Amino acid sequence: MVTSLICRETILPAETTVSIQPSSLGDTLASVTTNNKTERTRLIKQGGVHIADDELTVHYRYATHRATDHCSHGLSTTITLICDVSEPGNGTVSFPPQCVTGTCQGCDYQLIWRSRHACPKCEESDYEKIQGECKHGKQSVRYLPQKYCPMTDEIRKKVTTQECSMLTMQIKIGILVSAGIGLLLFVCVIYCWKRSKKMEVKYMKLVEGAQGKDGELPAAQTCAWSDEDEEEELNNRVAFKSKGDKLFGKLGNSSKGDGFEKMKLVGSSLPEI
Question: Which of 8, 91, 142, 227 has a CA 20 to 30 Å removed from the CA of 272?
Fold first, then answer.
C-alpha cells in the first residue's frame, strides 16, 4: 500500500483485478500557478500539447523527494487544467501526445485536464449584453457569455426589457455636429455685427470732428459784397466828395471845362456833384 496524493499502479488483466508496482508520484502539493509560461512552454515543446495563447491554464505541481536510481531529485507530477466551456461534466483527462506513458524523461509526469471548472467564476457583469430592436421605446436585452464564461440555463433564460431611443448613435452625433456648426456661425455673425458697429461709431466721430464743435458746416466764403458793405462804401465816397467841394469848385472856376463826370445817386437827397 502506498499513501500519496498521486500514485501510479500497473493493472494486470486476470480473473480478478491485480495491481502491481505501486509508486508515489507526488506526496505534497508544491505549487499552484496560473498561466505559467514555463509550464506552458514545456508542455508545448516536450509533450506536443497545443495550448493557445488566449487559453486560461491552472497548474498544480506535486512532488516527492524520495530519490530513485534514475531520478536523483525525486519524482514530480504537474496537472494542467485548461479552461474549456465546451467540455461537459468534469471534462476529460489525457496525457501529452508525445508522452504516452505520462512522462517523456521518466521523472516528470504531465496530465492535461480540459474542464469548464478550470474557468473563472463569472458574474452577471461578465456577460455581454445583446440589445434587440427598439420598438415603441422598448427593447429586449439578452446576455451572451464571454469566451471563458459558460452558458448556464439561468443566463440563457434571462431576458430583460429596457427603454430605448428611436434615434441611433449616428443620428445623435449628426445632430450634435450640426448644432455645433450652427452655434459657431451664430457667434461669427454676432462678431461681425459688433465689429461693423464699432467701425460706424468711429466713422461718425471722425465726421463730427471735421465739421466743428457745434456740428454745423462752416459758412461758404464768397467774393461778392453784401448790401451792408455796399452802403458803407457809398457813404465813404460821398463824405469824401462833400469835403472836397470847395477845392473842386475853385478848380472848376479856373478851368474852362468840367473835368469831372457827373453821377446821380439814386435814392439819395444829396445834390449833384
Answer: 227
